[in-house]
Design a protein that fits this description.
This protein is of the alpha+beta class and 105 residues long. It has one domain. Helices cover 40% and strands 21% of the residues. Strands 1-2-3 form a three-stranded antiparallel sheet. Strand 2 and strand 3 form a beta hairpin. Helix 1 packs antiparallel against helix 2.
Length: 105
C-alpha cells in the first residue's frame, strides 16, 4: 500500500491542473483517489459519507467505521486562505467530542 500511496501522491503532485481545480475536482481527483489507495471504499456511503451534516454545517466527507464517525475531511481549493475556515473546523471538533463523550457539554 505504501508504494501505491507514494505513487498516487507523486502523480497528483505532478499534475499542474490541480493547482487551478475547483473543490469538486479535488474531491474526485485527489481525495477519493487517495482514500481508495489507503483502503477506504469511496463507493460505500456507510464508510465514506459525502456531504455529512453536523447540525447546521456540513463537511465534505465523514470517514466512518462501524457507523461511527472517525475523521472529517473538508476540501478547499489550493491557495485558499484556510484561516477563515478554522472556526468551522474547531466547531466540528467540539461537536464530535461531545458526540463521543470526550468533551462534556
Amino acid at each position: 500500500m505504501k508504494e501505491k500511496l507514494v505513487s498516487a501522491i507523486n502523480e497528483i503532485r505532478n499534475n499542474t491542473s490541480i493547482i487551478i481545480s475547483d473543490e469538486a475536482s479535488i474531491k474526485s481527483g485527489v481525495v477519493l483517489r487517495l482514500l481508495s489507495v489507503m483502503g477506504w471504499n469511496p463507493f460505500d456511503v456507510n464508510e465514506v459519507k459525502p456531504e455529512y451534516s453536523v447540525e447546521s454545517k456540513r463537511v465534505d466527507f465523514a470517514l466512518r467505521i462501524n457507523g461511527t464517525n472517525k475523521v472529517f475531511i473538508e476540501v478547499k481549493r489550493p491557495n485558499e486562505n484556510l484561516e477563515r475556515h478554522q472556526r468551522t473546523a474547531s466547531w466540528l471538533f467540539v461537536q464530535r467530542g461531545r458526540e463521543t463523550g470526550y468533551i462534556n457539554k
